[in-house]
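Q: Hi! First time doing this. I have a protein sequence and I read that you can turn it into a structure. Is that right? Here it is:
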Amino acid sequence: MAWLLLVLAGLFEVAWAIGLKYTEGFTKLWPTVGTLAAMAISLGLLGLAMKTLPVGTSYAVWVGVGAVGTAILGIVLLGEPASIGRIVSLALIVAGIVGLKLSSPA
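A: Yes, that's right. Below is the predicted 3D structure, encoded as structure tokens:
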């Protein structure tokens, strides 16, 4: 259950990171409200996951899911470049997340 909470926390991190782009510097009300809600949910779920998972693993996976998801949506939604170097780097982050999951005691 803790791992599911952690992955959900990472997905909400993606939501708020992408949401920041749409707030236009927190000048648009509804994107700002959605972004702030996603931030709160993400941190809340991270805190719940950390009740049973190691802090280092939890934080690294949360950041990794957020970074990979945000980069992918940046490519898909915002037209950011999808160079070989970026794709390989994202794959390495995913490999690190999988490695942390496989080596975690919880």
